[in-house]
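Figure 6 in text form: structure in, sequence out.
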């Protein structure tokens, strides 16, 4: 099941007290989501495609990847220094932990094959 960018926007608007209809806010959320997707590709190793609008969806398994995308979006919104709330203290270290856990979980699902022939 894909992850809805609109749903993430709604969650982040409520959490940060921002207007969901503000074009600037929407762009900041999209940019933050794309930064997380870049992290997932670089660190976890899963292929991703950046989103361009809030009407897009992220073609990753929601059960596995939505928590890390949500937490990473919080991290990047806060990292922009535009939006901070007290309850997000320490989100950077929690996000890095979540990325590591996602990486381990993802790699366990991958089938590894030897490079120079068969082991059998």
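Output sequence:
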């Amino acid at each position: 099941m894909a992850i809805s960018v609109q749903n993430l926007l709604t969650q982040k608007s409520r959490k940060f007290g921002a207007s969901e209809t503000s074009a600037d806010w929407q762009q900041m959320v999209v940019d933050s989501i794309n930064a997380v997707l870049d992290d997932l590709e670089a660190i976890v190793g899963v292929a991703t495609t950046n989103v361009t609008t809030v009407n897009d969806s992220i073609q990753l398994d929601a059960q596995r990847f939505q928590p890390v995308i949500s937490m990473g979006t919080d991290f990047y919104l806060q990292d922009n220094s535009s939006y901070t709330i007290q309850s997000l203290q320490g989100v950077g270290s929690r996000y890095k932990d979540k990325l590591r856990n996602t990486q381990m979980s993802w790699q366990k699902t991958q089938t590894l094959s030897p490079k120079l022939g068969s082991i059998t």
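Caption detail: DSSP finds four helices and two strands in the chain.
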